[in-house]
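# step 3/5: fold
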Amino acid sequence: MKKRGQIAVFVVIGIVILLVLVLLFAFKDKLGEAIRKEPTNVQEYLNLQLEDIKKEYSRCVGSETRNAIKLLIKNAGEFNISTNYIRYAGENYPVLCSQFKDQNLRNGCLARPIFTFEAEEKLNDYLNDEVKSCLNLNSFRNKDYDLNLSEQNLSVKIFEDHILVNVNRDIKLKKGSFLAETNTFIYNVETPLGELIKVVNDLVQIVASGNDIDPLAYGLSSRNKYLVVVKKPYPDEIYQVSKVGDSDNIFYFAILKEGRYPRVEGRLR
């Protein structure tokens, strides 16, 4: 009896060991992944969490900035255009120049140039709200560390071929005596916004100087760097400006030509 009892115990132990081995084999990948993810110390753990927060910021700043750029390019430096535009073929073309003739029958134009600093201010306000709405830090709350956040302050600088987005915000992760913190995020978003603003202002200045825009000549003078497409729904002109080969960033604007309203010289007589 005693021997049979010992044998039974050994059998049970053998079965348990076998089950453990089977489970280890079945879940070896997940177990290995968990071990690899487990930080070697608290400081490393906090640093990794902070890097994940930075990635979330990068996701939001990148996506919201690209969306904002599309609106500014399409709406001639504005986010919303409710007045002073020409509707043509389902698109709104903001009016940047209203042409007229003076008393001496010389062409003139009431121009509305696009100022880069104004576009930056609008982009600052727009992005600050949009990034706040986009940002999701819920997965970093209610964890085994304290998360402290200050108010977010965002600033934008527009260059010819890119935009720099600077986010200032104190972010602190604290667990016991360990601390991981940062206060500045700088993101570089590639875009021809600044370059296109300069080109459009050049074209508007041509009309304001009393001349007509020659799309072909302008393209050639830029060594075929820019594509200027003009359409003429009488009496106005609408323009689409882009870099050659870039169909994702097309700048829309319109010239309100003399003839749509009574002539200036007629009103002066």
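# step 4/5: annotate
Confidence is low (pLDDT under 50) at residues 263-269.
# step 5/5: archive (pending)
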